Amino acid sequence: MHLEIVIGGIGGQGALTAGQLLAVAGMKNGKWVTNTPVYSPEVRGGSSNALVVISDQPVGSMMVSRADAAIFLAHQSVGRLLPSLKPGARVVYNSTLVQADSRRLHDVEHVSLPCTDLATEVGDVRAANMVALGALTALEPDLPLDWLCAALPEMLGASKARFVDLNRRALEKGAEEARGILARATN
Amino acid sequence: MAQKRLMQGNEAVAEGAIAAGMTFFAGYPITPASEVLQYLVRRPEVRAIQFEDEISSVCALVGASLAGAKAMTATSGPGFSLMQEGIGLGHMMETPFVIVDVQRVGPSTGMPTLPAQGDVMQAAYGSHGDYFPIVFYPNSVQELYEYTIHAFNAAEESQSPVILLSDGYLGHLYETIEMKRNARLRKRKRPPLGVGGRHFTGLTSVDNTPTPQNPEAHRRMIARLQAKQRKVGARYAHYEYISNRKADTLVVCFGSLSRAVMPLADRYAIFRPILLYPPIEEFSEIAKRYKKVVVVEMNAGQYVRVVQRLMRRTALSLPMIGGDLDVLRLEERLKWITTAS
Hints:
By secondary structure, chain A is an alpha/beta fold. Chain A has six helices and six strands, in the order E-H-E-E-E-H-E-E-H-H-H-H. Chain B is α/β, with parallel strands linked by helices. Chain B is built from twelve helices and 17 strands. In chain B, strand 7 (about 135), helix 6 (about 140-160) and strand 8 form a beta-alpha-beta unit. The chains are: A alpha/beta, B alpha/beta. Strand 2 (about 30-40) of chain A pairs antiparallel with strand 9 of chain B.
């Protein structure tokens, strides 16, 4: 297994947190992982991206140039990260914030999901990153939902243990909605 | 086997320092190095203090070292510039400590959240006068941990400040590591200040007495320091060399950038010095096997000068400046420079 994932968002959306959950989940399942945060200096509203590699082998280059999968949490991230996607990459768009005309990438397998709205439904708008990650597990066979749910307590730590349940529900919600969309598309 | 953990590069430096027996840390926060200080203030076994600036931080290291403590600071380019005077003082007074420079795009404030390798020359030549620093530059979170321990040991062996270079990518990179101590820890050889006679000013000295007007004594002192640094540096002449019999080009790279070069090992031979200074002499023999040598670095061409001096011939310089390291662009430019010349 060698999986390269990019997560793009704007500061505060939790792109880096989502990257960290992927890295912890990979490590807990015996993989070699890297998570490279790349962000601009603005305190709020700047670009904030996570480049994640999960592999059976020690990771050579941690700079992702041919990503197998991507999550776009905000409109601004699409243009910036587009060149680093592999043809046929699996993509999750947060359709609450990524405009329809940006969601027409060729040559990718994608799901558009209103992650921000769904997160509010689950209980907290800040869980949009987890809804998107959950949706990615429906598209990406190498990334089981169980890995992410099981990694939550370690990633959040004792001081944030009370948020495990909310984040788990957000992950499950994203996975369920994405599976529904994919099932309708094939029928 | 030690347990695998997910750790940030800056945290690995802090853990490495604790494993090396560091008890004193002085520093001033700066992106992308702040996490080292933030991590250490939570550790009860370390006296970690935020000073008013980088100048006082490095001076505190000199004092702590004279008092017998193993000491370290972590900074980035602008702070590293401010520390240069204190680094020279540390060399003159032969006080061991470790300076970590997590490089970012400069000069001055530059682009604080983006990585660079612009301090490669400053690390060796930033202070004034003749001094011969030992400088390491690892390329992974695992190596950052291990080479922090090596840096403390090399500081004790050479009785001098040792530089550990890192960069914005490595410092903020989260990666799997196995924490295992890789070397026996070196202990302090000299008694602390206050026990016996000890020279502790910035002046040239003879037998622990300041001797400001003695050129012959100064020449002897510089020769002694140079020989000592060379000897200790040779013990740490660590590098990674990936030979390639089909290639006519040897690519020299280091730090985070070298990680982006490694996937090209099918096309090029690769030499990655982990010890940047004193330069690895063995390199000149390795370079003879290749028609072309390209030095790729995230600066306008700094270490290429060292490489040329070692080889006594011209090397190609491929600068990758701006902090937006793009693997495809690197691949393209390497191809272009090796075919165009």
